[in-house]
Amino acid sequence: MFTNAYAYDQFMGRWSRLLAPCLAQFAEIPNSGGKILDAGCGVGALAFAIAEFRPLCHVVGIDTSKEYVSYAESRNNYSDRVHFEIGDVQNLAFPDAAFDNSLSMLVLNFIPNAPRALSEMKRVTKPGGQVVAAVWDYGGVMEMLRVFWDAAVAVDSTASRLDERHMPLCRAGELSELCKSAALDNIHENSHWKSR
């Protein structure tokens, strides 16, 4: 994982910015607004997409990285309704039912205890609210990274052990199974978004 927020944004941010509006629309956040949690906000792509897509929403983005939070704040054109703070998705510092919806984009597979993180997202979401998450399919649909890793392994077969296709939660059905284990219901999975 990148420690430099600017470097991350230059390398992967462009892909995150393409995915974020798709996830915001998939979440079916009501036009009436509400308070939304962006759990593991990184450099803010999802929070900004929600703010653009639903102008009545207030978004709180949290991330464990002080640098990423600072970077997101420095790019925040929605400061009247988007706020970023340092926080741990595994131990959310919010009361029960504090948010109308909780979303997480491209982070659950990096969290040491993803089941706990999802349970925390559920806890802070109001009854009837949505808990929505997305990760890349590193084994297939995220073509840019797939091309990179296929080339790396072709050049040096020992790179296979580092290939991101082995990451948790990154294959079809795995995120749905995690949601079921957190006792979420009405689970819908969409694995058809393409990276181009």
From TrEMBL:
GO terms for molecular function: methyltransferase activity. InterPro entries: Methyltranfer_dom (IPR025714), SAM-dependent_MTases_sf (IPR029063). Keywords: Methyltransferase, Transferase, Ubiquinone. Gene3D superfamilies: Vaccinia Virus protein VP39 (3.40.50.150). GO terms for biological process: methylation. Residues 31-134 form the Methyltransferase domain. This is Methylase involved in ubiquinone/menaquinone biosynthesis.
